[in-house]
Amino acid sequence: MRAVNYRSKKLPPRISIVIPARNEARNLEIILPELPLVHQVILVDGDSVDDTIDTARRMMPGIEIIRQTRKGKGNALACGFAAVTGDIVVMFDADGSADAAEIPRFVDALLDGADVAKGSRFCPGGGSEDITAFRRLGNYGLNLITNVLLGTRYTDLCYGYNAFWAHALPELELPSTALARRADGRMHWGDGFEIETVLNCRFAIAGMKIVEVPSVERLRIHGESNLHAISDGFRVLKTIWAERQRSRRPRINREPVVLPTRQQVVAASTRTQPVLLIDVPGRSAEESA
Ligand SMILES: Nc1nc2c(ncn2[C@@H]2O[C@H](COP(=O)(O)OP(=O)(O)OP(=O)(O)O)[C@@H](O)[C@H]2O)c(=O)[nH]1
Ligand SMILES: [Mg+2]
To answer: Which amino acids bring their CB within 6 angstroms of ligand 1?
Structure first.
């Protein structure tokens, strides 16, 4: 439950911007000065071998810098979320793809009553200067599967520009930042690029009111993407299936989650029908739009 109605009390919510960054020094020089003045900016470094940390400090002396505990963007975000002291969490990539001028749009959606303001490149007003036709198709398929399996109405499941109320964090039950790295080098589930999917599935499964906010994804300014379209796409597919299974288990037995085999996922995905815009029980169509 939200503790304070910020609109009616005319209280400004405290905003915490969480920035996962791995070798983004040159981009941080450009994006940090563009950020609005907020309660807290947290940069989560992923063992960068460039000047990411020094550049962040130079460009924004008040920035909070933390080092992630394992590998992957998901673990970086979980570490950043754990350091949040504000009321609203804004997830913000460091590669220059997120437009800081859109932050008020996300905050307004939350102040207007949403639990989650979900950025979308594919709803009216959204767009992408970056996405390839192949990735767009993959996104479409993964989005469709999620909407069918979870009864959501997402248009952009895998987009990383989102905001939500910080009080929702415990509900998300993200992998503990204190877990040790796996001995075989594999990532814990939720630590990788599937994090956006994990979050979006859990927002929906928890019955939160999700409002999509049109967002235009810009081109990464410098450097190369850390994402691998095929392997990370498959990991997202596994995640959708695992989240659905997880949502059916009693809460007390939810962890640890066992990832499905490739065969199970493929079998499940071939059973899906064309879009079924069904609602999460108990939520109206507008709420799940
Ligand atoms: N701390 C940390 N940050 C990461 C890691 N992997 C990616 N990031 C950051 O997460 C953000 C998004 O990563 P990108 O490589 O741009 O991937 P993406 O935006 O999902 O995919 P593209 O569409 O290809 O740009 C960037 O700010 C990266 O620096 C990681 O392992 N640790
Ligand atoms: Mg990017």
So the answer is: 20-22, 24, 44-46, 68, 71-73, 76, 93-95, 97, 130, 160, 193, 220, 225-227
Q: How many residues does the chain have?
A: 289
116: Cβ–Cβ under 8 A, 6 or more apart, which residues?
110, 162, 163, 164, 165, 168, 203, 208, 209, 210, 211
Residue range 114-127: average pLDDT? 96
Q: Which domain holds residue 116?
A: 11-270
Q: How confident is the model at residue 252 (pLDDT cuts 50, 70, 90)?
A: low
Residue 89 is assigned to a structural domain of this protein: yes
Structural domain total, the chain: 1
pLDDT tens digits for range 135-170: 899 999 999 999 999 999 999 998 999 999 999 999
Ligand 1: residue whose CA is nearest its atom 16: 225
Q: Give the residues across from 87 on adjacent strands.
A: none
Whichever domain contains 91, its CATH number is 3.90.550.10
Question: Is residue 282, in this structure, part of any structural domain at all?
Answer: no
Residue 93 CA to ligand 2 center (angstroms) comes to 7
Rg (CA), the chain: 18
- The single residue listed with the structure tokens 């969480």 is 18
Q: In this structure, which residue's CA is closest to atom 32 in ligand 1? A: 46
Collapse the DSSP code of 275 into the 3-class scheme (helix H, G, I; strand E, B; otherwise coil) and give the result: coil
